[in-house]
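Q: I'm building a small set of examples for a reading group on sequence design. Run inverse folding on the following structure and report the sequence directly after it, with nothing in between.
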């Protein structure tokens, strides 16, 4: 998968811009506030249907504009070039078109444009709540298991129904049927997640040996309840507690990924910089696993992160990206700190100024490997 063309209208400070990226490393150069991160944000919208900087649509739409519009041409191995169009207005209403036809759900974007974001604040994946780590796992399962998304959607609907009944019911009986179904489907969901984590973990351990060889990492998947016990029984036993809280306390919606370094939770032992490197390794491992499992390429967005790495770490990052056969977009204020990466990957330079792309220069990889 490769992004061959991108058009942006009224997105943040970008009134109108067009980008024709290369297949390898695309370096977006510009001063702070020039619009280079906004370009990454626009690509992120085309992959996940949302921003990585804000949940408020009005902050993304350009001043005095009614909506933003994105258009892209995606080259897929088995389907050729597929046009995508996405617009969103100030009421939060979206319109998505795939190959000229209106699409009903934003999940179709994720199917077509698998992408990973690496940015300076990405360590919140490890220091924040379990929701982010659960989404991290689900991204991986979504792209390799076709049955996952329909199952995940059904579980979400069941949880919504159960939580509504908790607020209405004075006794447990009305919830019994829903709990049996939630337990059955929740177990299937947990099986998919656990299998993915087991398959992906060896790649993570391999990459962390490159980035953080001083630590031995252990990763455990927590399904959201004690699987030694039946989930339906736990739900029934927890009815009074759940009713008092107004929501369901155990189940697949509480799944988490627990990481330890030398036997200690990573957030308690790693520095801020080391946490960033670990998250970088996790996302690289996902992209590499997707490529090895399905032959699909994962697009990487790297926002001003590589400048925080030393020369050897940047070179190893580039080598891993090359293994993934990935198209990469990376922002920087100047190109000097990226010389290590540019020597490993075919590189295109783009200059961004006041929301305008002023030109680019292509450079061939100097790597002999």
């Amino acid at each position: 998968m490769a992004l061959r063309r991108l058009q942006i209208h009224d997105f943040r400070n970008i009134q109108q811009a067009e980008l024709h990226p290369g297949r390898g490393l695309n370096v977006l150069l510009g001063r702070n506030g020039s619009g280079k991160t906004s370009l990454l944000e626009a690509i992120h919208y085309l992959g996940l249907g949302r921003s990585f900087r804000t949940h408020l649509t009005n902050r993304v739409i350009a001043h005095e504009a009614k909506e933003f519009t994105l258009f892209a041409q995606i080259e897929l191995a088995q389907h050729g070039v597929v046009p995508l169009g996405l617009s969103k207005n100030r009421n939060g209403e979206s319109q998505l078109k795939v190959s000229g036809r209106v699409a009903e759900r934003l999940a179709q974007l994720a199917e077509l444009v698998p992408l990973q974001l690496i940015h300076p604040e990405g360590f919140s994946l490890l220091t924040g709540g379990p929701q982010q780590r659960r989404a991290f796992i689900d991204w991986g399962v979504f792209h390799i298991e076709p049955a996952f998304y329909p199952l995940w959607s059904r579980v979400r609907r069941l949880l919504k129904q159960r939580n509504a009944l908790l607020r209405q019911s004075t006794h447990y009986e009305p919830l019994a049927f829903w709990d049996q179904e939630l337990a059955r489907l929740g177990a299937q969901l947990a099986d998919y997640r656990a299998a993915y984590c087991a398959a992906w973990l060896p790649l993570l351990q391999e990459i962390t040996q490159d980035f953080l060889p001083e630590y031995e990492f252990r990763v455990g998947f927590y399904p959201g309840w004690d699987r030694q016990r039946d989930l339906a029984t736990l739900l029934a036993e927890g009815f009074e507690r759940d009713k008092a809280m107004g929501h369901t306390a155990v189940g697949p919606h509480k799944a988490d990924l627990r990481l330890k370094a030398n036997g200690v939770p990573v957030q308690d032992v790693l520095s801020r910089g080391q946490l960033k490197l670990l998250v970088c390794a996790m996302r690289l491992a996902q992209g590499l696993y997707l490529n090895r499992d399905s032959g699909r390429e994962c697009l990487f967005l790297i926002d001003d992160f590589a400048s925080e790495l030393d020369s050897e770490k940047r070179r190893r990052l580039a080598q891993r990206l090359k293994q993934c056969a990935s198209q990469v977009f990376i922002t920087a204020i100047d190109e000097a700190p990226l010389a290590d990466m540019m020597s490993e990957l075919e590189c295109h330079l783009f200059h961004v100024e006041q929301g305008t792309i002023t030109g680019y220069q292509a450079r061939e990889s100097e790597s002999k490997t």
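The radius of gyration is 22 Å.
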